[in-house]
Amino acid sequence: MQLYFSPLACSMATRIALYEAGLEADYQHVDHVSRRAPDGTDIRTLHPLGYVPTLRTDDGLVLTENAAILQYVATWSRSAALAPADERGRAALQQWLSFIGTELHKAVFIPLLDRTAPDGAKAYALANAETRLPALARHLAGRTYVLDTFSIADAYLFTVLNWAQAAPIRLDRYPELVAYMSRLRARAAVARAVALETELFIAERGRPTPPPPPTRAVIDRFNDVFQNHEPSALAELVADDCTIENTDGGHHAGKAACIALWSAIATDPEIAFELEDVVVTGERATILWRLQRGAEATRGVNLMTIAGGRIASARGYIKPA
Ligand SMILES: N[C@@H](CCC(=O)N[C@@H](CS)C(=O)NCC(=O)O)C(=O)O
Predict the structure, then answer these.
(1) Tell me, what's the pLDDT at 170?
(2) Count of CB atoms within 10 A of residue 184's CB?
(3) Residue 309 near residue 236, CB atoms below 8 Å
(4) N or C: which end of the chain has fewer CB within 10 A?
(5) How far is CA 261 from CA 99, 169, 213, 265, 267, in A?
(6) 7 lines ligand 1 (CB under 6 A)
(7) What is the β-pairing status of strands 238-246 and 310-319?
(8) What is the mean pLDDT of residues 96-104?
């Protein structure tokens, strides 16, 4: 059988499953531009959307969709069972394959990784992550795998979560997910698939560079600096040519000057910030804040512009009491 794949794409789940299953396959690397494989196949003639994974079996069946292909591989596994045989277990497997495919793969990661997805789609995906990832982390707490033993759901979940490296998703906020990924990486089949596909990915596209984070993520991290009194993230958030202009006539130019001003405010233990509203439109954001210093309260607005995932300028206005 032939597996049409792209390095580090969702088709890596099928490679992991095939390795785990002890099944041989002819791996056909689909070129990301021409959409052709070395055997001459244009993937668009096999898959209606020209996607990977696509599997062609020895008796000519062409299968698409991760969930279907993975279950096909599990059915023919020569080694350990990769899918439960009993009805309840099978239903749980379907549940998790659907969750991974719809709630994580398509609703979170694809909009974040697709360079043509508009900012709004990225913000929507990030908001989805805020509910999907905690739900997944709760499920994995105290468990080794998605089901009771390793299954094709793990091959798929590992592959999708592995994209967090290239997306503005911080898995480190979920210790259960970090532990799960290290457990999976320690499996021989997973380590072998990742090593091979990383090499192929770099040969095809160069070292992966994460896309700039969306405006919303930058602004959320910026606000966290003040709310948590923790300025270390500013180094990553502020552009080299950042400028700050304040109502009091203060003008600060350059990364060091901006970080110095914001760090001083963030680390002042007397100051407590509250957010009244945050509005993000494209690469601009409006932050409405309230600042309490002892008995004195001030309200204000910050108008922020973001470029390439970093804060390029900020204007601060104090609201009259
Ligand atoms: N619903 C499909 C989605 C497959 C899919 O999204 N494949 C991506 C890689 S992860 C792809 O081939 N993208 C190629 C493209 O967008 O041109 C499945 O579960 O198999």
Answers:
(1) 85
(2) 23
(3) no
(4) C
(5) 45, 28, 23, 7, 10
(6) no
(7) parallel
(8) 98
Pairing of strands 284-293, 251-253: unpaired
Which atom, in ligand 1's list, is nearest to the CA of 67? 19
Identify the structural domains of the chain with CATH numbers, from first to last.
2-205 (3.40.30.10), 215-319 (3.10.450.50)
Residue 320 confidence (pLDDT) above 90: no
Both structure tokens of 71: 């279950």
Is pLDDT above 90 for 208? no
Q: Count Cβ atoms within 10 A of the Cβ of residue 59 and give its class: 0-12 exposed, 13-18 middle, 19 or more buried.
A: exposed
- In eight-state DSSP terms, residue 61 is -
| 62-87 confidence digits (pLDDT tens) | 999 999 999 999 999 998 899 999 99
Ligand 1 nearest atom to the CA of residue 9, by list position = 10
Beta carbon of 52 within 6 Å of any ligand 1 atom: yes
Ligand 1 pocket test, candidate residues 4, 5, 43, 49, most atoms within 8 A of CB: 49
**For the chain, what is the largest distance between any 2 Cα atoms, rounded to a whole number of angstroms?**
78
Residue 321: per-residue pLDDT: 67
- Proportion of the chain above pLDDT 90, given as a percent: 88
The answer to whether 314 touches 242, Cβ cutoff 8 Å, is: yes
Beta bridge partners of 251: 245
* Torsion sign across C-alpha atoms 58, 59, 61, 65: negative
Query: Length of the chain in residues, anyone?
Result: 321
